[in-house]
């Protein structure tokens, strides 16, 4: 209460207060359910609900641009079934944020599905389209809403007829029942929105309803398959739809009484028809996107479960063949090389996988990810050329961004090479990587040294690494943890590590949010160590506290003071 009455208000204070009230509501709800007690329910819950709504309204009034705050209020209203309040929230939110189509769709969906008011949903969609006359998503959802409305009316009429009730004043228009309103929405959208993607999305929505055959036919005739050569011949999505349509056409023609072998044969024929369309597509539109559509289709079919080994093998061979054709055309996207290599390795085609990985690095030589893929393949097939390939990769890449390669190299070396070679590699990586990336290598080097060289060796390495900045907080924490694991854990050494860490990270002059909150923790850990360690000096806590208060700023001071007090009283 004090915090939200300040002159300088903070959003976090309102959020924390609201969360506290919501937690209280949840607790009351659980306790009532446990003991079956409903006395004074309206007085208690209602007053808390009103307080939460009031807090939300104050926060939203102050920070109107924060959409997440609005959405939190909406979610709260839905959770506690505050329909009247939610209607007001939507109304105010849309008045302030009319430029966000997703909010209009959310409001209309609530009206349609929760309030069961298709008229209100329709009005919202029409208002939204005044602000966004060319938004495909709005038209798609409006189209879906009209079809849902038609389906709802069809079910109502059928229920009345089955009950042999007199419809009386209920008048069901045949045009609405057949989706005429959705047709009008589609025709209006078709004049404003160009591109095949929208029309295919609308078509997929129409297919969800069993009374839209005529509507589907119109979409296809006006903007679909039958006008491809003139309208969208260069769009990969069109060819993708045409090819996949062959699967559906085949399924419509299948008969009921078929053997397993006949089903496999028919599926093979259907997939071959799809591939024939894709082959025509990659000839007509030889682009990366077109090949990507073709390969994605092949991978989908390849991953599909089947009991027929013959069909499974055909799908695998077809997929590998398509990958190879795209590669030979130099139109295989970088992201798909990884899937190709994975497929080759799973099929035990190690030699081919090595060739493909090498070709990929020649084509995408500046890409760290591609070099990483090639190295992983060589490591998996236990090739003798791993070291040579690492050297080649480092030579091609500049120092920036090579951290994944060095990490992979030292991890491989740990399990393969001698300790001396691995240590030399760690030291080389510290020189070769950028200062920011060398921080990670220092942590790994420290960890590896402790595992393989013991405590005395890791102390020497730690001292030498401390000569060159930068460091990470985890680097010092690792050393503190190592010291604690020793049988004769010396507070003198722990104090040294804490002091080193505080020299680097004791103040709050940082933009890194995670690091910012770590400052407070390291001061508290230091105090805790002095209090709990057998060789600790509790009298040092006062000076540590004084130094922390000088170094920390803002909210961290308040948090530190409360935690420090709990520590001193033995409650933390």
TrEMBL record:
Keywords from the named record: Nucleus, Repeat, rRNA processing
Major subcellular site: nucleus
GO-annotated molecular function: snoRNA binding
GO cellular component: Pwp2p-containing subcomplex of 90S preribosome; small-subunit processome
A biological-process GO annotation: maturation of SSU-rRNA from tricistronic rRNA transcript (SSU-rRNA, 5.8S rRNA, LSU-rRNA)
InterPro entries from the UniProt entry: HAT, TPR-like_helical_dom_sf, Utp6, UTP6_C, UTP6_N
Keyword Nucleus: yes
Keyword Nucleus annotated: yes
Domain U3 small nucleolar RNA-associated protein 6 N-terminal: 1-51
Domain U3 small nucleolar RNA-associated protein 6 homolog C-terminal: start-end pairs: 272-552
Location in the cell: Nucleus, Nucleolus
Gene3D superfamilies (UniProt xref): Tetratricopeptide repeat domain (1.25.40.10)
Coiled-coil ranges from the UniProt annotation: none
Family statement drawn from the similarity comment of this UniProt entry: Belongs to the UTP6 family.
Protein name: UTP6 protein
Lineage: Eukaryota, Metazoa, Chordata, Craniata, Vertebrata
Gene name for this UniProt entry: Utp6
């Amino acid at each position: 209460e004090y915090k939200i009455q300040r002159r300088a208000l903070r959003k976090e204070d309102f959020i924390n207060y609201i969360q506290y009230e919501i937690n209280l509501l949840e607790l009351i709800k659980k306790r009532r359910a446990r003991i079956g007690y409903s006395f004074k329910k309206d007085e208690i819950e209602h007053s808390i609900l009103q307080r939460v709504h009031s807090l939300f309204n104050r926060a939203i009034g102050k920070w109107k641009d924060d959409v997440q705050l609005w959405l939190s209020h909406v979610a709260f209203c839905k959770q506690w079934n505050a329909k009247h309040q939610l209607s007001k929230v939507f109304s105010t939110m849309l008045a302030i944020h009319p430029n966000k189509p997703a909010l209009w769709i959310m409001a209309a969906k609530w009206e349609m599905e929760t309030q069961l008011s298709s008229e209100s949903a329709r009005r919202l969609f029409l208002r939204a389209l005044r602000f966004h006359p060319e938004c495909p998503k709005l038209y798609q959802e409006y189209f879906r809403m009209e079809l849902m409305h038609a389906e709802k009316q069809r079910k109502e009429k059928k229920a009345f007829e089955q009950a042999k009730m007199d419809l009386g004043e209920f008048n069901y228009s045949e045009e609405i029942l057949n989706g005429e309103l959705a047709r009008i929405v589609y025709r209006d959208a078709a004049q404003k929105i160009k591109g095949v993607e929208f029309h295919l999305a609308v078509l997929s929505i129409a297919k969800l309803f069993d009374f839209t055959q005529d509507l589907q036919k119109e979409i296809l005739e006006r903007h679909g398959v039958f006008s491809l050569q003139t309208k969208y011949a260069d769009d990969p999505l069109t060819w993708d739809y045409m090819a996949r349509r062959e699967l559906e056409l085949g399924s419509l023609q299948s008969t009921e009484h078929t053997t397993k072998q006949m089903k496999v044969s028919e599926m093979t024929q259907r997939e071959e028809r799809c591939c024939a369309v894709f082959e025509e597509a990659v000839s007509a539109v030889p682009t990366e996107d077109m090949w990507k559509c073709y390969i994605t289709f092949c991978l989908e079919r390849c991953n599909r479960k089947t009991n027929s080994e013959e069909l499974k093998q055909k799908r695998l061979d077809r997929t590998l063949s398509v990958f190879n054709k795209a590669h030979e055309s130099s139109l295989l996207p970088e992201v798909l090389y990884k899937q190709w290599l994975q497929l080759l390795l799973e099929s035990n085609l190690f030699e081919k996988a090595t060739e493909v990985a090498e070709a990929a690095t020649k084509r995408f030589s500046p890409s760290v990810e591609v070099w990483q893929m090639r190295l992983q393949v060589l490591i998996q097939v236990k090739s003798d050329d791993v070291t040579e390939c690492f050297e080649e990769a480092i030579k091609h890449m500049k120092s920036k961004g090579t951290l994944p390669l060095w990490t992979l190299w030292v991890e491989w070396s740990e399990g393969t090479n001698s300790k001396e070679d691995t240590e030399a590699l760690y030291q080389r990586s510290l020189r070769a990587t950028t200062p920011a990336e060398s921080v990670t290598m220092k942590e790994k080097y420290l960890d590896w040294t402790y595992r393989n060289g013991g405590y005395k060796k890791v102390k020497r390495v730690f001292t030498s690494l401390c000569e060159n900045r930068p460091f990470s907080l985890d680097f010092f924490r690792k050393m503190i943890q190592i010291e604690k694991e020793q049988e004769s854990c010396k507070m003198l050494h722990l104090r040294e590590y804490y002091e080193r860490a505080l020299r680097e990270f004791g103040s709050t002059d940082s933009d890194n949010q995670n690091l910012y909150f770590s400052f407070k923790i390291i001061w508290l850990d230091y105090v805790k160590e002095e209090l709990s360690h057998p060789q600790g000096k509790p009298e040092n806590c006062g000076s540590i506290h004084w130094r922390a208060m000088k170094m920390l700023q803002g909210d961290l001071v308040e948090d530190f003071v409360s935690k420090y007090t709990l520590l001193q009283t033995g409650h933390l």
